[in-house]
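Predict the holo structure. Ligand: fe (ii) ion.
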Amino acid sequence: MTLSYEGYPSLQGDFEPARFNSQIHDCEIVGELPPDLDGTFYRVGGEWFYPPKYRDDSPFAADGIATMFRIANGSCDFASRFVETPRYLANKAARQQLFGYYRNPFTHEGEQQGQYGRADTQSNTNIIVFAGKLLALKEDAPPMELDPDTLETRGFFDFDGAYTAPTFTAHPKVDGRTGEMIAYGYEAEGLASNAIWLYTIAADGTVTSERKFAAPFLSMVHDIAISQNYVLIPVYGMVSSMERLQEGKVHWGWDRSKPSHIGVLSRHGSSNAVRWFTGPAMAMVHTFSATDRDGVITLDAAVSDGNPFPFFPDVEDAPFDGAAARTTIRRYVIDMNSADDGWTEEKRFQDKAGALSRIDDRFLGHDFRYGLLGYADEYLPFAGDAGGRRPVNSLGKFDLAGGTVESMFAGPEYGLAEVAFAPRSPDAAEADGWVMALATNYETMKSELVIGDTRDLAAGPVAKVRLPFKAPGQVHGNWVPRWMMPS
Ligand SMILES: [Fe+2]
């Protein structure tokens, strides 16, 4: 079969696939890397090693590729490597794309027909260090362990068999003080099931509890939040069903008729009792974090009123609604003392739309003040051509208590991926350190890592690491300080 990317509009320009592993010793630097910045920025995303079988397939089905910027003493080394999932290896052996629509095993070819989970995963969504291991995550399968120095694939990791769900979230929550992880798998009892299995895992990787419960309906549960005492589980109208999959459709469809829910259960103990709160349709794909006091929970999240993903169609074929897809910062208050099963919603910072919400992770599970978010500031100049899109150009440090924001404008030629945060020291004040994001330079069509100091974001980037090519795509990335690196 002849391999060609021609005729794939979604794989051109900024989305032209990188099909190579790479290694750069001593990258070009513009400005000066902070001398105290010492660690590794790990990223993971998707690249189509072979073009998709269906041209309208979700980019979430692209092959996982991990990258790392290792920074120390003012220098930076870079590496990228495909995650060698069973799917990636099967495709390479066959020299063609064997897999059909995103997470639809009925659309796969030949021996791959009916395969899902470990056989079909791309390990392309998040990459974390936990219990001394570097793990690439994708919510349809267990974590994939990678070598932290070379990014070589070691294989699936299921906590020595103690994590028994077949799926593992891309957004486990690690308590910033204790190192305890809250993880979960949804569709945990097979394809199209509404079962969620929730785990507590100690900082050393020991699974300490397993709890099983059912969601009101099968929904994408991409992210959750934890507060001091609760786990919060958003469920919304991004739905699937066995019928949908048997009809040969992409896994997810948007159902406008579905209300949204937030499930609340105790973070501690063994109870699997969930109290489901209900509200209007919305999509809470990513959270900042949550806190609670006297039974009143405050949850900050990046939320849209409707379907945020144009490649997951409306279940009734309604046209994609760009206005409803706009994702902004919202605050939810849930009162566990009240008999009311609703919540209050406050829309905030409405002129700053951005979807990939973060905080200083040292404060996860505890009181926090600052949200970190890349957003598109439409009032700032853009010198490139991103196919009519206005890319993210600013990294914001949002004071969620005070309602103000400090921002770094990357420059008119840049489009930014998700923000990552590097604390200045292990005990630095909240959000005191550096923000960084992978940038596409639309003048050169190459990639740069832009880095700013949270003490003076308005001054712009303090340093840029320039790559001699466009780096592989990113869904999520994380800065791992030297003091947290696996030995
Ligand atoms: Fe995510």
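The mean pLDDT is 96. The radius of gyration is 21 Å.
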